[in-house]
């Protein structure tokens, strides 16, 4: 069997450990807290749960193929035309569609190093040349991106807030960067954690889309809206590009329950507000307590903290697992002395601090 030769070096995406894996592998009997995958500790909106219950008897029917109702709700949320919204099976599907539409073998994709691993995986699968621009002071190095652009550059991926550091860009520096880029280069601003930004000076991708810059803004229902298990996300973009992506995507790409749950979650402003409040309070608490323990958490505009440990972090990661606390080692991201810790419920955050106190 002959397959594309550049696929041989691809490796599966390394997901974080699940609660069931840790319980099975370590034989733990007590509570296990997952603070590794940046999920919503409050769970889904009660309105989303009720909406899914109302549609359970209809799962023998195909969902709405156009995702029109959800696209219209999102368009109202961002004050956009619905024709500028593409809904996907997670924002990863929109990423995949963008690469399929814009990138040919030998074209270039630019991303930070490190960054969200799926940019590299999807680009490499399409035969693209992946160019990595190292972070500067834990932030996207915009001047480095400009220097790396060539006539073959098609897409620049900016996860914003950045994953795994939680860093952000100011509005003025983002605008200057976009103005300096060649017109044919598309910038994908991945705002998976956009709902957690609390600094008004931070750039928001939709601002630049409305002003005509060549950007796509990605968002997801997996984080702030607590629907990670349903896999639903979306992209905001020019009408022409949205038309192409909707033409090449799979029909019925977002399942029935995901569509109705996402619409309900979008309307539950109280749940989103409580999610933001518990996240911001948790960030402040963990930043103070981890600093007190001699660790160095970086400022974050997301729902997680990047924590410099000053020692190999793998041993801390394993020790926390044995305490029933799942965090994320940053060794695969090139930071062997760092952990990424998701904000949990107050009792989960306290359990983490207490366990680290014992371990350290």
UniProtKB/TrEMBL annotation:
Keyword Cell wall biogenesis/degradation: no
Classification via Gene3D superfamilies: Aspartate Aminotransferase, domain 1, Type I PLP-dependent aspartate aminotransferase-like (Major domain)
Record GO biological process: L-histidine biosynthetic process
N6-(pyridoxal phosphate)lysine modification, residue list: 223
SUPFAM superfamilies xref list: PLP-dependent transferases
Domain Aminotransferase class I/classII large: 33-356
Domain of life: Bacteria
EC number: 2.6.1.9
A GO molecular-function descriptor: pyridoxal phosphate binding
Cofactor(s) needed for function: pyridoxal 5'-phosphate
Coiled coil spans: none
Family: Belongs to the class-II pyridoxal-phosphate-dependent aminotransferase family. Histidinol-phosphate aminotransferase subfamily.
SUBUNIT field: Homodimer.
Protein name, as recorded: Histidinol-phosphate aminotransferase
């Amino acid at each position: 069997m002959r397959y594309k030769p550049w696929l041989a070096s691809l490796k599966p995406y390394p997901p974080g450990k699940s609660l069931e894996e840790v319980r099975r592998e370590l034989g733990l009997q007590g509570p296990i807290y997952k603070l590794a995958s940046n999920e919503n500790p409050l769970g889904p909106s009660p309105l989303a749960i009720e909406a899914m219950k109302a549609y359970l008897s209809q799962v023998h029917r195909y969902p709405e193929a156009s995702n029109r109702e959800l696209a219209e709700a999102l368009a109202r949320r961002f004050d956009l035309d619905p024709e500028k919204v593409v809904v996907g099976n997670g924002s990863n599907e929109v990423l995949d569609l963008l690469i399929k539409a814009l990138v040919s073998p030998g074209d270039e994709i630019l991303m930070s190093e490190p960054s969200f691993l799926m940019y590299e995986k999807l680009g490499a699968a399409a035969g693209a040349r992946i160019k990595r621009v190292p972070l500067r002071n834990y932030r996207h190095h915009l001047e480095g991106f400009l220097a790396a652009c060539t006539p073959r550059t098609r897409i620049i991926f900016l996860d914003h807030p950045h994953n795994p550091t939680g860093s952000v860009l100011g509005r003025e520096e983002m605008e200057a960067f976009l103005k300096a880029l060649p017109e044919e280069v598309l910038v994908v601003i991945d705002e998976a954690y956009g709902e957690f930004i609390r600094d008004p000076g931070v750039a928001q991708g939709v601002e630049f889309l409305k002003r005509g810059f060549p950007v796509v803004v990605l968002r997801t229902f997996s984080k702030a809206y607590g629907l990670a298990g349903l896999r639903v996300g979306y992209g905001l973009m020019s009408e022409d590009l949205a038309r192409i992506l909707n033409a090449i995507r799979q029909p019925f790409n977002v399942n029935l329950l995901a569509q109705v749950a996402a619409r309900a979650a979008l309307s539950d402003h109280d749940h989103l507000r409580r999610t933001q409040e518990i996240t911001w309070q948790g960030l402040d608490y963990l930043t103070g307590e981890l600093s007190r323990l001699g660790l160095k958490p970086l400022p974050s505009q997301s729902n997680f903290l990047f924590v410099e440990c000053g020692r190999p972090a793998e041993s801390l990661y394993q020790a926390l697992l044995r305490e029933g606390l799942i965090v994320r080692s940053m060794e695969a991201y090139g930071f062997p002395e760092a952990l990424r810790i998701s904000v949990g419920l107050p009792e989960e955050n306290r359990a983490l601090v207490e366990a680290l106190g014992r371990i350290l």
